[in-house]
Amino acid sequence: MNIFEDRAPSPPRPTPLRVAVLGCTGSIGRQALDVARQHPERVEVTALSVYGSTAELVALAREFRPSAVAVADRSYGDDGVLDGLPSGCGLFLGDEGVMELASLNDVDCVLVAVVGEAGIHAAHAALAARKVLACANKEALVAAGDLLMPMAEPGRLIPVDSEHSAIYQCLVGGRERELRRIWLTCSGGPFLGRTRESLASVTPEEALGHPTWAMGPKITVDSATLMNKGLEVIEAHHLFDVPVDAVEVLVHPQSKIHSMVEFADGSTVAQLGPSDMRIPIQYAFSYPHRWDAPCEPVDWRTAGELTFGAPDTETFRCLALALQAGRVGGTLPCAMNAANEVANQAFRDGRLGFLAIAEVVSAVMDATVPEPVESLAQVAEVDARARAKAAQAVSRLSC
């Protein structure tokens, strides 16, 4: 099953579109609010969530006047700053509270912009409530795609990752059954061209220096290891119902081509544009229409050369491990993703070397017996076991 399957017409979009922004103080969330500011007649922010940034939440609630907000970390529930929420604004706490926002009556579209495993339940809640899910959380599909995709009605799951938005836009102009291959573009990250030996001593600060995209720290480190691209391959596999090996990673350092689809007749359709996440976010809100650009378009007369290459999976082993997990399927991608989250955080904390991230992921995958994905409870259990195993591996390999 894929998001283009013709089971029913896409639902009409109301105007204004009432949007819940889950993870509103993160990179994607902030840019989504920029889109809402640029199109106030078309986007109404009716719900907001944060993990623990209560002061920012109150400021944003005063600006956008949502009907409800949520704080995922319950320990912030008694924070006095929350007394400054506007009158009539409901307050929910915990992961359950975030899920509650996804099913509110005055929400048409749920942007899941929280990072990591936390987005799985929110994405499930949005689809269960038959909301439009603008999915910026790739881990939801990596870990639970087998559960979420059957719930996705046509037009109700719009990818927000720039690459998957690009593929989605390319396929709007063609028939999915005629698709032969997806070319998933990859900047190569800050360490493109480096040898494995030279990566042994890189620091978190170096890994966080992405050359073309402004992202949160977890995703930026994933881009440096190329794990991010591996997660995106699995996400594309679920979204577009293609085998993992029909998704080719293509290194494109300029980040102007956001992905391409190749059809059976040899024709290739590409989506190009600025390296600005507000474009795919806005498209998720405007689909099937297009609104005025949220940023300056590319002047192709001065864009310079566009180059391409193959990824180095021997140096950047995380990509190879993610592809392996995707091919096996079942619960292995969930375990792989959980291990990566633990190792990524340990690297950012200075407790683990850069190359050891792949070692932690590999150790957890080797210790995991894949099973068919059957429930969210099972996914949560696999995730917890993998995190415990990853923590043990981190302790063994710590700097």
Automatic annotation (TrEMBL):
Reaction equation(s) it catalyzes: 2-C-methyl-D-erythritol 4-phosphate + NADP(+) = 1-deoxy-D-xylulose 5-phosphate + NADPH + H(+)
Species of provenance: Granulimonas faecalis
GO MF term set: 1-deoxy-D-xylulose-5-phosphate reductoisomerase activity; manganese ion binding; NADPH binding
Biological function: Catalyzes the NADPH-dependent rearrangement and reduction of 1-deoxy-D-xylulose-5-phosphate (DXP) to 2-C-methyl-D-erythritol 4-phosphate (MEP).
Entry keyword DNA-binding: no
Domain annotation DXP reductoisomerase C-terminal: ranges: 272-388
Family: Belongs to the DXR family.
EC number: 1.1.1.267
Ranges of residues in domain 1-deoxy-D-xylulose 5-phosphate reductoisomerase N-terminal: 19-145
Family matches, as InterPro entries: DXP_reductoisomerase, DXP_reductoisomerase_C, DXP_reductoisomerase_N, DXPR_C, DXPR_C_sf, NAD(P)-bd_dom_sf
Gene Ontology BP, a term: isopentenyl diphosphate biosynthetic process, methylerythritol 4-phosphate pathway involved in terpenoid biosynthetic process
SUPFAM superfamilies, alphabetized: 1-deoxy-D-xylulose-5-phosphate reductoisomerase, C-terminal domain, Glyceraldehyde-3-phosphate dehydrogenase-like, C-terminal domain, NAD(P)-binding Rossmann-fold domains
Protein name, as recorded: 1-deoxy-D-xylulose 5-phosphate reductoisomerase
Keywords: Isoprene biosynthesis, Magnesium, Manganese, Metal-binding, NADP, Oxidoreductase
Cofactor requirements of the protein: Mg(2+); Mn(2+)
Pfam families: DXP_redisom_C, DXP_reductoisom, DXPR_C
Organism lineage: Bacteria, Bacillati, Actinomycetota, Coriobacteriia, Coriobacteriales
UniProt domain 1-deoxy-D-xylulose 5-phosphate reductoisomerase C-terminal: residue ranges: 157-240
Pathway: Isoprenoid biosynthesis; isopentenyl diphosphate biosynthesis via DXP pathway; isopentenyl diphosphate from 1-deoxy-D-xylulose 5-phosphate: step 1/6
